[in-house]
Amino acid sequence: MPPRLRPSLIPQCLSCARSYVEAGTAGWKPLFGLGGQTRGIAKDKDKSISVQLLKATAGYGKQGRYVPVARGVMRSKWFPNKIARYAVGEELKAIRDGKIIVGRDYEFDTREQPKPVEVELVAEEVEVEALQEAPKVQKVKGIEPQRAMDLLGVLLPQRLDFVRAPRGEAPDVIDQTIPIFGSVSTADIVQEIRSLLAHNDEAARITLDERDIEFVDVKLEDPTRVKHLGMFAIKILVKGSDQWPVERKVQVIAQGES
């Protein structure tokens, strides 16, 4: 039979009992690591960045509001789920200058909905009203020219490559005097840009026209197309934008070149 504790040794209150237990287990903490250990944690993912909400979010605010959020949360949750988008270009400058206010609305609750207005209608009026309020198919809207230019500047590579068959033997180096079968036109460039932007939901809505592409610093018989190998400079300017054009290179290489 285990020995009985004397009544005088039994804790008489909750605080005494807690102190009694902690005193008995304090010596074991270093042995089993119960004291806790703080490991190095990467802090970069916790740094806040400025983003714009694409959806109303509880504790942050309504759609369109600029809010700070941890970089890791934006990268792994918000951006893939289309909750927010990154602020870029002129937006970042406006934020730095204080023209765009970035801040959370901690009291915002997405569950708050306007109360429906109770209206008594006769049967015929209800039927007509239901037909009028039938959901309409929403058309996919384009984006503003200024925003389109920002995205083009960020997402497009510096060089766009096109492969064409030369008229004759393929040269060892790019020679702008060698003609090609067919051509590379502004329409081809627009199509290539659209395919490059297709992976980004926002950039895929950019409305780009052949007239927004211009070959520069080269004399061409047809200003809308090149018909020989070489490297050519182009300017991209979305209609309605007052920004500087986005400048890129178009390289026409011979079929079979590496």
Automatic annotation (TrEMBL):
One of its GO terms (cellular component) is ribosome. Keywords: Ribonucleoprotein, Ribosomal protein. Residues 50-94 form the Ribosomal protein L9 domain. Belongs to the bacterial ribosomal protein bL9 family. The keyword Cell division does not apply. GO terms for biological process: translation. InterPro entries: Ribosomal_bL9, Ribosomal_bL9/RNase_H1_N, Ribosomal_bL9_N, Ribosomal_bL9_N_sf. Pfam families: Ribosomal_L9_N (PF01281). PANTHER family: 50S RIBOSOMAL PROTEIN L9. Coiled coil: none annotated. This is Ribosomal protein L9 domain-containing protein.
